Sequence to fold (104 residues):
Amino acid sequence: MKATHTPGPWGVLDEPGHPPLITAWNDADGSTDDIAEVFEETTQSFANARLIAAAPELLAALRGARDFILGFREDEAPAGLLDEVKSAIAKATRADPFLTPKES
Fold:
């Protein structure tokens, strides 16, 4: 499924005196798109910003993990892991967690 979010890579602009800004870089033309701003300059706010900036790569990794887990026989797959992965993907995409990989 084609992403509906701003494509990555995303990163955090960390300028002294300013709260962290999550930005997407367009490698093709060098442009940037602001994704979100965290409104405090605390250690926790910068950690939150880095987690948000990792979202596109985390979603891609979850989709890869889902496809890998689907390669196991049902009795071989780690118990509950597939449901956790599907639920996390659904949370990120607002999709039904039990759709097939081609549907989400």
